[in-house]
Amino acid sequence: MKIIKTKNYQELSKKVAEIISEQIKVNPKSVLGLATGSTPVGAYKELIKSNLDFSEVRSINLDEYVGLDGSNEQSYRYFMEKNLFEHINIKKENTYVPNGKGENLQKECEGYEEKLSELGGVDLQLLGIGLNGHIGFNEPDKIFGKNTHVVDLDESTLEANARFFDSIEEVPKQAITMGIKSIMQAKKILLVVNIPEKIKILEKAIYGDITPEVPASVLQLHQDVIVVYCEE
Ligand code: PGA
After folding, report:
1. Dist CA 68 CA 54 (whole Å)
2. In 3D, which of 58, 140, 146 has the Cα closest to residue 109?
3. Which atom of ligand 1 approaches the CA of 198 most closely?
4. CA distance to 36, 99, 130, per residue, from 79 (Å)
5. Which atom of ligand 1 sits closest to the CA of residue 136?
6. What is the mean pLDDT of the chain?
7. How many Cβ atoms from other residues are within 10 Å of residue 38's Cβ?
8. From the CA of 137, how far away is ligand 1's center (Å)?
9. CA nearest ligand 1 atom 4, residue
């Protein structure tokens, strides 16, 4: 595991964008595993500024709220469009986000796994971490080994994400998420942590016991992980 500490969020965003850019330059047809939330916004801005060629890049996102479709401003599809896709030359048909409005969510999850293997797996997976150690929406659990699945969100996740909604009642209670198993199959993983409140859980994840109670701790078993973090 390679650990990079940056001075501040701006430097962190530049570093993350640089790692993603390198990946695309080495392989213009890269499959990027992308994330939403506040952490990657700065890196996405840097990528937009870079004018990098995304015309052959494929992207697949970690998760989506159940019950929201892509036109809903709180959906992760909408987030990706507004914060990245609309500003770069990626082809819309090469971008994948789970369909939270799918009629049969089980089928949706299976289809997402099929898509992952059709794409030949993820070359570079971008991850944030939750205050409870979650990656994607893989909440603390008794086991690690799941593929894409529907998850009931933890109370702490609902509270953390309420800041994006008018009230906590509006936060969807479920999501579709790539599982730990799907995430661990990525060739390279980039874990990004940008707020002081998360440093404790980051330390637990990278130096503590490997346990599904701290989902991110599984990353210790992956052979190619870069952690980029800052404390302010
Ligand atoms: P954040 O969330 O980027 O909005 O802080 C990350 C996460 O909960 O995985």
Report:
1. 27
2. 146
3. 5
4. 7, 14, 18
5. 9
6. 97
7. 12
8. 10
9. 37
Please list the active-site residues. Answer: 63, 132, 134, 139
Whole-number Å distance, alpha carbon 156 to ligand 1 midpoint, is 12
| Both tokens assigned to 159 | 């509270």
* Rounded Cα–Cα distance for residues 112 and 148 (Å): 7
pLDDT at 145: 77
Q: What is the pLDDT of residues 44-86, one digit of tens each?
A: 999 999 999 999 999 999 999 999 999 999 999 999 999 999 9
In this prediction, residue 47 carries a pLDDT of: 98
Residues of the chain with pLDDT under 50: none
Residue nearest to atom 7 of ligand 1 (CA): 130
Tell me which residues have their CB closer than 6 angstroms to ligand 1. Answer: 37-39, 128-130, 134
DSSP conformation letters of 20-89: HHHHHHH-TT-EEEE--SSTTHHHHHHHHHHT---TT-EEEESEEETT--TTSTTSHHHHHHHHTGGGS-
- Predicted pLDDT of residue 115: 98
Whole-angstrom distance, CA of residue 112 vs CA of residue 79: 19
Report how far apart the first and last C-alpha atoms of the chain are (Å, whole number).
22
172 Cα to the center of ligand 1, angstroms: 16
pLDDT value, residue 163: 94
